[in-house]
Amino acid sequence: xxxxxxxxxxxxxxxxxxxxxxxxxxxxxxxxxxxxxxxxxxxxxxxxxxxxxxxxxxxxxxxxxxxxxxxxxxxxxxxxxxxxxxxxxxxxxxxxxxxxxxxxxxxxxxxxxxxxxxxxxxxxxxxxxxxxxxxxxxxxxxxxxxxxxxxxxxxxxxxxxxxxxxxxxxxxxxxxxxxxxxxxxxxxxxxxxxxxxxxxxxxxxxxxx
Length: 209
Known about the structure:
By secondary structure, the protein is α/β, with parallel strands linked by helices. It has a domain at 46-185: Roll (2,3-Dihydroxybiphenyl 1,2-Dioxygenase, domain 1). The chain is built from 4 helices and 15 strands. The chain has helices spanning 20-30, 61-73, 130-138, 169-176; strands spanning 12-17, 37-41, 46-48, 52-57, 77-85, 88-94, 100-105, 120-127, 144-148, 152-155, 163-168, 182-184, 188-191, 197-198, 204-206. The strands form 3 sheets. The protein has an 8-stranded mixed β-sheet with strand order 5-6-7-4-8-11-10-9, sandwiched between helices. Strands 2-1-13-15-14 form a 5-stranded mixed β-sheet. A two-stranded antiparallel sheet has the order 3-12. Strand 5 (77-85) and strand 6 (88-94) form a beta hairpin. Helix 1 (20-30) packs antiparallel against helix 2 (61-73). The longest helix has 13 residues, at 61-73. Mean pLDDT is 92; it is low at 1-7.
């Protein structure tokens, strides 16, 4: 795969589901993300942790509660109740299709009425070796924005695109509130780049989704 700097934007992610109509209806009701999150049919077997978490970063706790509330009303289940922590406020849930979502803010206090505004969508990959996967993406044109050794990496992303971050698999699972074990398909396809590719952890990239 030959990615240059202006071809690395993640335009969307595709979630694979046995029932794409039901999954699409859930995401429309829960988050209203439009074409940022797409769904397509797949019967690929998968069990346990799929190795990724999708995060919605918002401005204040009331917005976290609003988004978690509509997701739960639409059929999601809670993995971690929303609460304050040293870094802010957030909670984790699992969609009916099995995808894990985290909704969080760095703010611990509300500064205005609750909104439905989402500041950033972050795709966090739980990987076997953070340094190896970091080099894979850096070699293909992604620019590192934050890096904490072998623990966490975040890449730059233009406004309005999906951010990519890397975390150790066990750490990602712990943060999501699930066991780290899992096998089979990730049931995730990343939309971006100029050609199809597979990263060191088996995550698929497809262009122009």
